[in-house]
Amino acid sequence: xSTPPRRIAHLDMDAFYASVDLLRYPELRGRPLVIGGSSAxxxxxxxxxxxxxxxxxxxxxxxxxxxxxxxxxxLGVSSAMGIMMAARLAPEAIxxxxxxxxxxxxxxxxxxxxxxIAPDCEDRGIDEIYLDLSRLAGDSRPLAQRIKDAxxxxxxxxCSIGVAPNKLLAKIASDLDKPDGLTILGADDVxxxxxxxxxxxxxxxxPKASERLALLGIERIGxxxxxxxxxxxxxxxxxxxxxxxAAAKGIDERPLITAAEPKSVSRETTFERDLxxxxxxxxxxxxxxxxxxxxxxxxxxKRCRGxxxxxxxxxxxxRVVTRDLTLALATDTAAEILRxxxxxxxxxxxxxxxxxxxxxxxxxxxxATADTPRLPQQGELELRERDRQR
Length: 390
Ligand code: TTP
Ligand code: MG
Ligand code: MG
What we know:
This protein is an alpha+beta fold.
């Protein structure tokens, strides 16, 4: 029995660090820009409101280029090059220091935007992800375009996407039409689109291996695909030799490594002053509602539902008490979590002041695979009725 072909996307942000910095300094758009300086290259705000930027030609030091805009790349500048070397190629280019907090912020933003459309995702670092689109509806091109649009909407940045039957081909594809690219590759395209490329384009063939392949007269992926298996084994060992041949043929069965599903989610609050269970009932109740709303939000964002709801109390003397209960149906609604939390709280003798209140939802399952329908919303009504009675 043959399984249907997979549909894997690789998304990579374009000139990522530089593009994030251009959001802050739009006046630099269209100019060669190199990222890699230190605080000495921080722009200086002038009296007239303009900024003075450091030039590559003035740089002295041993720093390396982390990335460069496509305008700077056109002059020969590339990642991992010494900045002094880059200065010889592009003396007029602007140099900016790295700003990791900003890159991390935009990394989170684009990944969240993508997850809203394609939740099956493998995180491959600050500016790239693999996505499994196999279970999503719609043709690959409009789907990938929607993802690109969502990334731009959330960040103002462009990315390049490749869609192919596996990770190896998707990674090559995302690079074929950078920047702002969208490339769809089928198994039938391997011969025409992949084979003419240098072997280095395969993720996993580094400078060492490509050098040794060149010595065997193998420079293009197509030549590698037609190489003798015995010769490859002899020069690269059994396992890497076999992998080289399979990779050149576009074969790659690796699954996506998605983040481990969370086992539980919890939220808690430590009070500024210890609260009395009766005298501060209103405040405690408001805190509890807040915690339950946040948890429902966490669950819905993670596309999970949980069956076990628990509360945690820390008393003024630091004693900790927990209580939990398990629902018949998994839930992700604030009303259900609140109702269960109150049920748990009723089982705790409340005679001391409280330092902390926490709520936890566990026994989680992915909402998509949960066999139970969402509980009817009337639950909320019922809850308010009961509240009034108490
Ligand atoms: P890349 O995705 O390799 O490069 P890029 O996003 O700058 O450009 P493009 O994808 O359009 O070709 O790397 C992502 C970021 O990682 C890059 O912006 C800076 C950082 N980086 C380094 O710090 N050192 C390096 O050697 C490389 C390659 C990247
Ligand atoms: Mg990139
Ligand atoms: Mg990258």
